[in-house]
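Kindly go through the following sequence and its backbone structure tokens. Advise at your convenience whether the structure tokens fit the sequence:

___
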Amino acid sequence: MHIRIMPGLDARSAIVLSALLLTAAAPPAFPAPESHADAVRALASADAATRAEAVVWIANRRTMADADLLHERLRDESGLVRGYAEQGLWLLWSRSGDAGIDRVMAAIADCREVLKRNPRHFGALSGMGQIYTRLEQYDEALKWFRKALDVNPNMVGVEMNIELLRQKRQRTI
């Protein structure tokens, strides 16, 4: 005996469709806090998943001012919550509070990841020089530009950047 739930739909497809519809209609298993006050309250919940969700909310939306809340969760009874708290603190520490600086710091982190995989990536080496030039850390910029030139001696733009930084340093002495 075959039962057709919808014409043209086999039993397997009907089960998948039913599961999708039930999932879409169900409330989230771990509803995220909607405000800072909700997150702080959720950190005291008896439910580990609720505490973990609060840690994630704080880590993604708040600043160093909330670091103490995450430090407390490093001693949580749940390993999941402790792990999220540790990762959340790393995330908070990586933010300066200035969106422009945060973008530059993300570009530095990206370059470092590339250089871990390929230490001779002259584009990433040169990129580090450019970033440090923008940060007005000229000695650090020169170091990275020289590394790029050591890997690829054909980089005329890098040679020009090194010369410009040398001139800039001479004017400030």
Summary: The CA atoms of residues 10 and 128 lie 57 Å apart. The first helix runs from residue 11 to 25. The mean pLDDT is 83.
